[in-house]
Design brief:
Chain C: This is Dehydrogenase protein. Chain C: It is an enzyme of class 1 (oxidoreductase). Chain C: Keywords: Oxidoreductase. The complex is a heterotrimer of chains A (353), B (165) and C (758). With 353 residues, chain A is α+β, with helices and mostly antiparallel strands. Chain A contains 14 helices and twelve strands. The N and C termini of chain A lie far apart (51 Å). With 165 residues, chain B is an alpha+beta fold. Chain B has two domains: 76 residues, Ubiquitin-like (UB roll) (Roll); 75 residues, DNA polymerase, domain 1, CATH 1.10.150. The relative contact order of chain B is 0.15. Classes of the chains: A alpha+beta (353), B alpha+beta (165), C alpha+beta (758). The complex binds flavin-adenine dinucleotide (FAD), iron/sulfur cluster (SF4) and FE2/S2 (inorganic) cluster (2 copies).
Chain lengths: 353, 165, 758
């Protein structure tokens, strides 16, 4: 790890000022930042420790049922807030499907949004990576890329954003609250991450020095509480990043007709991928395997392999169909023992039986 | 630059001079405070061998920057037993052969203690498995670990009942 | 040491208290309190920290290192490179025996594999040393790397595979056998490079006191390591003290002393202060051994009754460019199934990787997954239940040699395992079982086997004036439970209670404890201990019967026996006295006995000696998402005398979980251009987590083996890896009807078109 300056501001203004210097970066839980620094993938000159900033570690609810989550709320703290989990169950399930209990206790809401890709070449300073060193090339293109993007990638970069949390947030139209030198602004989570294009090193809409102060879930999001799920497919039962993940939230009337639908997918693009067309196609349909499978196909329209990863397309289609079936079956009173896992399914939800 | 932090370490208040801002909690414990019970298996948050409790919650000490711990309370494996009296989780690990080489064990035990404080297991082995998955055990002592955690949960529940009665 | 007691006592004369008891780990309190000191927990005064810089290319030369930048980093004390590394008395590329490996000790600027050590930075702190190593920013002359194990033109037949096994063996006429069969299997299975990944890295804390060397480092074979160090540094073996009281796992990669350990010692020599060097987790993927990848082709012929007419097993493997270990995968086919003809062959290709070496079940594990998959395919081809097929081909004598088995209760393993698992309810056709949620369910079986291996070890027994005992041997506990099981044998050998027996192990200044490997440690050291204890008792008896003041005076030695710290007349229990009385009268502070354990070559000539087992696995597969979970495993194992069933069960669990990882998780992913392993960490190189192990059971099938050794011990450490991986692969096939022949089986295999349909 390179030598760095360590500062620990106590006000947001001081933090923003300290982080606006070139080479400065924020330190929250440190679970991604220190990992990358230890591997030599990033070498910040200054760490601005925000963990002692006041008032960023609260979960606030508004009258209408919306929620405002401070950027320093821990991933576990949010998932285990019973009231929050009750109203936004897919968010809680996504959080608990990620990383490990230890990491979730350290990882913050803001840090999770800004976690970097897990592309192995990005992590490896000896490899060429446009994201790490603009213009250097992309060793993943012709390398090991079985878990890379199938949507929204470019010649410059085929990496994915790996967050579980962000997928559920994207489905529920979350908004990111940002503080900068010019004051506060907000960006929809679906716009927060950028696709790589020719500038894969520019990953989000944050300007240098800008601080995430919180994430807001609008009151409309809570209205999906009865039919909200998260699903994560991975190579190991726990403690592994997703190959593909999907969040779904539905409103269903008494006749079993879908009146509103939200779908987002993870680990298939450089941002959590909202499937608007698939959502639109569902509205007015009867819940059922056919509608869900069609939504899965629609969600992956335009997808293409970026390497040795063609399997991710049918896999993501099936994941969307499955998470919709789960959401339609109803949010369980208690999260399953293995949150987000394909196992412990509810009877009858399998699409291709 | 020298940095000072004030922490509570295994119940004792400590003022600690950090000779380097890069020091992680793990290297602080192991290389500077002679608390080597906490182990380093990967140094990257991928194994759980370094699990300690910070403010009562289990975290990976290898990804915790020591400088940021100002004001925090840290509990390590060395602070778990009450003199010669083992903590119920420690005893349960012995009783159920919840380890072989023992290298992951301090981390497993701190993680189990953290888990029981979270109080979300409710006697369900599947929940224990999932909630203990942040601690790899290459020896494969998982069956014993799950039994140990369930056993310790039962014991602590009984003790707190007795405490109330 | 001069007196050794030959192992001649009848096998079954022993009925003591400790052996066979499920005693809890005697090192348990130390381990659960954090008090157990592993190598990296040592911190001698004035210690410095060393960190290796490793190569990012697989073939070429280091052209430049920015030593000045590293040295300029605050806290950096010294940088060790090929140019200034202290001289060695022996070339690290010399190799005298199959258990010795060539080392990378900065002997030149040559790079032979990615992650090879190329320099060592020594600093006041770990942080400074780490950054110093990064600042070296090596530049290379890169040469093309050979990485393709399928390069047939490069293949050759090694002289020997494993530690000295023949590369080829044949009985009967394979082509005739294949022609004779009415059914046929011809399949190729690929297994990947796997890394041991003990949770504890190969840490070393080295301190020189003049020409004397004290080393804290995990070792599965301290005596060999000590000899290696003495040779490399040109010092007397007695001047090297290795302390390895606890190993944080070994699995083979701590069997030989490895380059990073020696580099730490060199660094200490260079700076004249104690040094700690701990490889990082990524650095463990290269200089510390691995299980080589294999490509194995099995050709089986079966007649109409489902009997094997031919079993041909060819294994391609790899070794490094500069040293040799050839994974002996095909030899698993020597022992398990009777066949009219058997042929096993190996060839190999050299690639630019670190040298492969012994890894839990070397050859057996990788060979078993191929063989058990092929046997399952054969059963299917014959329309038979996989268990019925295995029974139809049950070997009553060892197929390759025709020798009788010293003992073989495999039949009971099948029967007890099948009963416990409920195998009879299995539906024959694949993809025809579902659970209540619609997940595909598959049941698979694999046969487990592992040879009885013994090394050589010595032990010293002491009976003390107070009547208590001490047993000393440089045994190593890497988690298998030596501190406990060997102490149990020690207590019984001295006819004392366990808590009256002090057991000393884990340092190289004790009698040679041999090798904790090959699943042979308990057998080897156990028999040494047993012999030492009996030797001490025999000497005590001689003293008593010769002592006119003893109530036992005048009895023949064989008329006296030891029980619970007393000697007594065999036919008159009232004629007895305590050990302490005898020593007190003789004015002795203590009395010693010596013993040695080693294989009896003659027995090996006459018998085939193996442990056996049967593993049954249930796997559930999501039909749409392809994610798999092993929901149930039952293993039944017959492995001779069980010293401590609690520890043995844990060994079986561990082995089965390794089998699970083999089947579904473990794989090093090498970039085909650079030869760098891109998942060299525990986040992306998956080993099973707790949640991957749902229900696991290990049944111990009693087995009395009168031949293997005096104590009747076989070995339990590795056998359970075999059988399990195949059982899981077979269960995946049974669940899905997809036969995946490339390991590990992953989600993509379930989603994409089946690799090959059955
Ligand atoms: C072994 C391992 C497994 C993991 N598995 C998963 C998984 O399965 N699913 C998953 O989703 N995640 C996983 N993670 C990633 C984990 O979720 C992230 O590391 C974590 O969420 C980051 O949060 P943090 O608070 O620790 O961020 P930090 O590491 O402190 O910061 C991350 C980045 O965000 C910036 N930052 C942090 N807070 C702010 C803020 N408020 N404003 C502006 N910038 C900020 C930092 O400057 C830094 O660039 C895993 C991590 C590890 C190490
Ligand atoms: S895919 Fe993106 S992150 Fe990965 S190497 Fe290419 S540019 Fe870098
Ligand atoms: S050492 Fe911290 S998680 Fe492995
Ligand atoms: S006991 Fe060895 S790693 Fe867990």
């Amino acid at each position: 790890m390179n030598h760095f300056d360590y500062v620990r501001p106590t006000t947001i203004e001081d933090a923003v000022a300290a982080a606006s210097e070139p080479g400065a970066t924020y330190l929250a839980g440190g679970t991604n930042l220190l990992d990358l620094m230890k591997g030599g993938a990033i070498k910040p000159a200054r760490l601005v420790d925000i963990t002692h900033l006041p008032a960023l570690n609260r979960i606030e609810r508004d009258e209408g049922g919306g929620a405002r989550i401070g950027a320093l709320v821990k991933n576990a703290g949010l998932a285990y807030d019973d009231e929050f989990a009750h109203d936004f169950p897919a968010v809680a399930e996504a959080l608990l499907a990620g990383a490990s209990p230890q990491l979730r206790n350290a990882a913050t809401v803001g840090g999770n949004l800004l976690q970097r890709t897990r592309c192995a070449y990005f992590y490896d300073p000896a490899s060429a990576c446009n994201k790490r060193v603009p213009g250097a090339g992309c060793d993943a293109r012709d390398g090991l890329n079985s878990n890379h993007a199938v949507l929204g990638f470019s010649d410059a970069c085929i990496a994915t954003q790996p967050s579980d949390f962000c997928v559920a947030l994207a489905a529920l139209d979350a908004v990111v609250e940002i503080a900068g030198r010019e004051g506060q602004r907000e960006v929809a989570l679906t716009d927060f991450h950028r696709l790589p294009g020719d500038t894969p090193h520019q990953e989000t809409r944050l300007a240098p020095g800008e601080l995430i102060v919180g994430v807001r879930l609008p009151k409309e999001a809570a209205a999906f509480a009865w039919h909200s799920r998260y699903l994560k497919v991975r190579e190991r039962t726990s403690y592994a990043f997703a190959l593909v993940s999907a969040a779904a939230a539905l409103k269903i009337d008494d006749n079993g007709t879908i009146t509103d639908a939200r779908i987002a997918m993870g680990s298939i693009a450089a941002k959590p991928w909202r499937a608007y067309d698939a959502e639109a196609g569902l509205i007015g349909s009867q819940i059922g395997i056919e509608a869900f499978a069609a939504a899965g196909r629609a969600a992956l329209a335009g997808a293409a392999p970026s390497g040795d990863n063609a399997y991710k397309i049918p896999l993501a289609q099936n994941a969307v169909a499955r998470v919709l079936a789960r959401a339609a079956a109803g949010t369980p009173r208690e999260l399953p023992a293995l949150p987000g896992a394909p196992f412990a399914t509810a009877t009858g939800e399998l699409a291709h039986v | 630059m020298s940095l000072a932090i004030q922490i509570t370490l295994n119940g004792e208040s400590r003022a600690i001079e950090l000779d380097d801002p890069r020091i992680t909690l793990l290297d602080l414990l192991r290389e500077r405070l002679e608390l080597t019970g906490t182990k380093k298996g990967c140094d990257r948050g991928q194994c759980g061998a370094c699990t300690v409790l910070v403010d009562g919650r289990r975290v990976n000490a290898c990804l915790t920057l020591a400088a940021s711990l100002e004001g925090a309370s840290v509990e390590t494996i060395e602070g778990v037993a009450d003199g010669p009296e083992l903590h119920p989780v420690q005893q349960a690990f012995i009783d159920h052969d919840g380890f072989q080489c023992g290298f992951c064990t301090p981390g497993q035990i701190m993680s189990a203690i953290g888990l029981l404080r979270e109080a979300r297991v409710h006697g369900d082995p599947e929940r224990v498995r999932e909630q203990m998955s942040g601690n790899l055990c290459r020896c494969g002592a998982y069956a014993g670990i799950v039994e140990a955690v369930l056993d310790a949960e039962r014991l602590t529940a009984r003790e707190s009942e007795r405490g109330v009665a | 040491m001069s007196e050794f007691v030959p192992i001649t006592a009848p096998a079954r004369q022993r009925q003591q208290a400790s052996i066979g008891q499920p005693v809890k780990r005697r090192d348990g309190v130390a381990k659960v309190t954090g008090a157990a000191t592993y190598a990296a927990d040592n911190h001698p005064k004035d210690m410095l920290h060393a960190v290796m810089a490793v190569a990012t290319i697989a073939n070429g030369r280091v052209r430049a290192l920015d030593v000045a930048a590293a040295k300029a980093h605050p806290g950096v004390v010294e940088v060790m490179t090929p140019e200034n590394r202290p001289a060695l008395a022996k070339n690290p590329d010399d190799r005298d025996n199959p258990f010795m490996f060539r080392l990378d000790l900065l002997q030149s600027d040559r790079v032979r594999y990615a992650n090879q050590p190329i320099a060592v930075v020594i600093a006041e702190t770990f942080e400074a040393a780490t950054e110093g190593a990064a600042l070296l920013a090596p530049r290379y002359d890169v040469e093309p790397a050979q990485l393709d194990m399928h390069a047939d033109s490069e293949a050759f037949v090694p002289e020997a595979v494993g530690p000295g096994a023949p590369a080829e063996s044949h009985v009967g006429d394979i082509d005739a056998g294949l022609a004779q069969g009415s059914h046929r299997v011809d399949s190729t299975y690929e297994t990947p490079a796997q890394y041991h990944n003990p949770m504890e890295p190969h840490a070393v804390v080295a301190a020189w006191e003049g020409d004397k060397l004290i080393v804290d480092t995990p070792s599965q074979a301290m005596t060999i390591a000590r000899g290696r160090l003495a040779g490399l540094f040109g010092i007397d073996a007695d001047d090297v003290l290795i302390r390895s009281p606890y190993l944080g796992g070994g699995f083979g990669c701590k069997g030989a002393l490895m380059s990073p350990q020696v580099l730490g010692i060199l660094a200490a020599k260079m700076v004249g202060r104690p040094v700690k060097l701990v490889p990082t987790r990524p650095q463990m993927y290269g200089p510390l051994g691995h299980r080589a990848p294999t490509s194995q082709t099995l050709r089986l012929g079966m007649d109409d009754a489902g009997k094997l007419t031919a079993l041909s097993h060819h294994a391609r493997t790899t070794s490094s460019m500069f040293d040799e270990f050839f994974e002996p995968s095909a030899n698993i086919s020597h022992t398990l199934y009777a066949s009219l003809a058997i042929s096993t062959t190996h060839d190999a290709v050299r690639v630019h990787t670190g040298t492969p070496m012994f890894m839990r079940g070397p050859g057996e594990a990788s060979g078993s997954v191929a063989l058990e998959s092929a046997i399952d395919e054969a059963a299917h081809a014959c329309g038979m239940d996989p268990l019925a097929f295995r029974l139809a081909n049950y070997a009553d004598v060892e197929p390759i040699s025709g020798k009788p088995f010293s003992s073989k209760r495999l039949y009971d393993c099948y029967a007890q395992g099948a009963e416990r698992f409920g195998w009879a309810k299995r539906v024959l056709a694949p993809r025809s079982m579902r659970d209540e949620n619609g997940l595909l369910v598959g049941w698979g079986l694999g046969t487990a086997t592992f040879p009885v291996i013994m090394f050589e070890a010595e032990a010293r027994a002491i009976i003390r004036a107070d009547g208590t005992g001490v047993m000393e041997t440089g045994a190593q506990d890497m988690g298998q439970g030596a501190w406990t099981a060997l102490a149990q044998i020690a207590a019984d050998s001295l006819k004392l209670e366990l808590d009256q027996t002090v057991f000393r192990a884990g340092t190289s200044d004790l009698p040679d404890g041999g090798v904790a490997g090959g699943s042979g440690h308990t057998a080897t050291v156990g028999n040494a201990i047993d012999a030492a204890g009996r030797n001490a008792i025999a000497r005590l008896i001689d003293m008593a019967v010769a002592d006119t003041d003893s109530p036992l005076h005048g009895l023949a030695a064989d008329q006296v026996e030891a029980r619970w710290g007393r000697l007594q007349a065999v036919d008159d229990g009232a004629r007895s006295e305590g050990y302490a009385d005898i020593l007190r009268r003789a004015g002795l502070r203590e009395l010693e006995g010596h013993g040695r354990g080693r294989a009896d070559a003659d027995v090996g000539e006459r018998y085939a000696m193996h442990a056996h087992g049967a593993v049954f696995a249930e796997v559930k597969v999501d039909p749409d998402l392809g994610q798999m979970r092993v929901t149930r495993m039952v293993g039944a194992f017959a492995a001779g005398r069980v010293i401590n069933p609690r520890m043995v069960e844990s060994q079986f669990f561990g082995g089965m979980i390794w089998g699970l990882g083999f089947a579904l998780h473990e794989k090093a992913e090498t970039d085909p251009r650079t030869g760098r392993i891109m998942n060299a960490n525990l986040g992306e190189y998956h080993v099973p987590t707790n949640a991957d192990v749902a229900n696991i059971e290990a049944l111990i099938v009693n087995e009395d083996d009168p031949h293997v050794n005096v104590l009747g011990i076989k070995g339990v450490g590795e056998i359970a890896v075999t059988g399990t991986a195949g059982a899981i692969a077979n269960a995946v096939w049974h669940a899905t009807s997809k036969r995946v022949r490339r390991f590990p089986i992953g989600v993509a295999d379930m989603i994409a078109e089946p690799a090959t349909a059955d």
